[in-house]
DNA sequence: AACGTCACAGCAAGCGCTTTCTATGTACGG
DNA sequence: CCGTACATAGAAAGCGCTTGCTGTGACGTT
């Protein structure tokens, strides 16, 4: 029913081996023969059987990209950049590879299962994006899996994720700590002394690092942090809205709210507005990531720009072996403070 | 080197056939035997070889999701919803399937190549999202490919894409035309008579349908459209910014700007603001899609909400054969007008 | 003129799994 | 006590492709 290599071979009056070689182009085939084969392929509308090919050659052209939340532009932008470099069809890469993005939804189990699925498919490479989970058993399981993937010849690259030593993975890590610190120091420099902080989910490395940066800035300026000033939530707008209301309830005298990311900051802005505060006149708001929309909200968001697309592209290139891995297998990607309208000095 | 079924069989002292049956669970195996096998699997850390399995069984667990731009939340949201239903790991579906999203970047060639790649992998299902390209040769090529996929047993679902008769694909189509019309009628109802329209790229069905709706509304109210009032661009913010400047240059007396989607509308708002106009006092702005950020910009965007997540989920279920296809293989998904602050009656 | 050298093409042995068909052991009815 | 039925396990034949090795003419060399 379906056309196979043998059918093409028969039609072109050559052996299956020759057809295979024409298709893979890694062995000399006379021009006239090649032409005949290609013609037969065309006439029969032949499509290579991927699994069979992968089995015989013991390699596949699948490249996995793991993201926490594909509906979040943070990941979408990285995934897009990675995929662009992986080649996929039309990319600059020669061989056509199937770059696939897998949505873990932030769940450790799904992450692990996706890795197994990719291992099963003998993926050529895997790129993991975004922060990792800090739960020890899960981290151990993930690391073991990454180690195994790497051992099996799959190139493993972490993009925006802390290094995982001993796994053989190459890491492009975001300097969340440094960015967080710089941002808060900017606020402190403007005179803010009572700063609320809306952190992300507890167990994520990104959450911890950004928060550490924030606290380092406070400490560096001798500001004693009030435990009421920190609220944890999800990395989304809704969470930012609620957390802000909570912060305001706990301490109505806050002059600034620092959010774990831009989406959260958006929620914070909405909450402040709904509670009758003006931004930045009454309360300053800062975000993190500098997603595209951040410049469009009014007032535009002061935030820390992360070069998502650049980092993704680089990760993609490394995954494809088209760029050398950074020395030590790790490179730190810095953020850049974007000063905009949502932050001003405190009133009075 | 790598552990194979045979190794597991040897360790468990059974035949490879038995191991396969334990793993697939579709044939009676004595409990004691099963246990022994499972233990061996665990001890050897065995991972099934996907390609080999797919080859032998002539089926695969890959499901492809094609999107135009993964960095755009419009697609991210749909992809996320689809993937959620496909199951993937942790999903409600029983068998673990690898739901993979492929980023075509809106390029017809890439779309086609991805389809071939998926055909190669003998994908279990394919979901295509977003508008289609109207270029005739390309449409023919795509349709032929879809037809072939369907014939080969791959379930093909279109989500937010016009029906492709004769291809055997099931379509969940957005009522872009109706939504566009309703939106513009709302503006007309408020008294607007000079409305600029920022359309998307010429060759996309979505672009055409939304524009047709807009024009139908104008026609229905006897408003003769000035050709200067329509500008085409990309579906992004930047394009909206520039197109708005262009519209203003052509006719500074416009009282409203209707954008092809929310991102474009955002750009329009920025351009209006930068040129000293207030929204909606001087000029009203409307978008389309109702992406999450649309409620957060100031003023909040009047737009047409498309139930992206719901449609995606449904498409996913249909792709998995977990929900029946709509009668006739097509269902129209309507948008809902969201009236918010960015639109008001014209001044004076 | 005899003989390496090439440039190609074909043979055939798998790759690791699934599945049909067959064999074995056990339980049971007559 | 034997024949039949049932439950379970194994043997073996592929699935469609890749690739190392083996021809086989056509050339160029001495």
TrEMBL record, chains A, B:
GO terms for molecular function: DNA-binding transcription factor activity; transcription cis-regulatory region binding. It holds the Pfam family LacI. Transmembrane segments: none annotated. PROSITE patterns: HTH_LACI_1, HTH_LACI_2. CDD domains: HTH_LacI (cd01392), PBP1_LacI_sugar_binding-like (cd06267). Residues 3-57 form the HTH lacI-type domain. Keywords: DNA-binding, Transcription, Transcription regulation. It comes from the Bacteria. InterPro entries: HTH_LacI (IPR000843), LacI/GalR-like_sensor (IPR046335), Lambda_DNA-bd_dom_sf (IPR010982), Peripla_BP_I (IPR028082). The keyword Transcription regulation applies. PANTHER family: LACI-RELATED TRANSCRIPTIONAL REPRESSOR (PTHR30146), LACTOSE OPERON REPRESSOR (PTHR30146:SF153). This is LacI family transcriptional regulator. It comes from Streptomyces pilosus.
């Amino acid at each position: 029913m379906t056309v196979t290599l043998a059918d093409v071979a028969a039609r072109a009056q050559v052996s299956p081996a020759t057809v295979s070689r024409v298709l893979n182009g890694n062995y000399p085939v006379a021009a006239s023969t090649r032409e005949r084969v290609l013609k037969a392929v065309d006439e029969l509308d032949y499509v290579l059987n991927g699994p069979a090919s992968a089995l015989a050659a013991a390699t596949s052209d699948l490249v996995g990209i793991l993201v926490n939340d594909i509906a979040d532009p943070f990941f979408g932008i990285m995934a897009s950049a990675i995929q662009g470099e992986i080649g996929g069809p039309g990319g600059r890469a020669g061989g056509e590879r199937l770059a696939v993005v897998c949505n873990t939804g932030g769940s450790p189990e799904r992450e692990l299962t996706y890795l197994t699925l990719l291992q099963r498919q003998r993926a050529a490479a895997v790129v993991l994006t975004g922060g990792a989970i800090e739960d020890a058993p899960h981290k151990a399981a993930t690391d073991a899996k990454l180690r195994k993937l790497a051992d099996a010849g799959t190139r493993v690259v972490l993009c925006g994720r802390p290094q995982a030593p001993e796994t053989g993975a190459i890491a492009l890590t975001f300097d969340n700590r440094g960015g967080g610190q710089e941002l808060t120091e900017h606020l402190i420099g403007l005179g803010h002394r009572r700063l609320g902080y809306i952190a992300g989910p507890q167990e994520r490395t990104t959450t911890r690092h950004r928060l550490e940066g924030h606290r380092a800035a406070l400490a560096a300026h001798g500001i004693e942090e009030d435990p009421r000033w920190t609220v944890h939530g999800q990395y989304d707008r809704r969470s930012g809205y609620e957390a802000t209301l909570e912060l305001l309830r706990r301490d109505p005298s806050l002059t600034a709210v620092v959010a774990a990311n831009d989406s959260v900051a958006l929620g914070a802005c909405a909450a402040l507005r709904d509670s009758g505060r003006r931004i930045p006149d009454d309360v300053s708001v800062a975000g993190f990531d500098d997603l595209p929309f951040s410049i469009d909200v009014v007032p535009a968001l002061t935030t820390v720009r992360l070069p998502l697309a650049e980092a993704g592209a680089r990760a993609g290139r490394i995954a494809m072996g088209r760029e050398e891995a950074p020395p030590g297998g790790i490179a730190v990607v810095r953020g850049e403070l974007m000063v905009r309208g949502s932050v001003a000095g405190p009133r009075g």
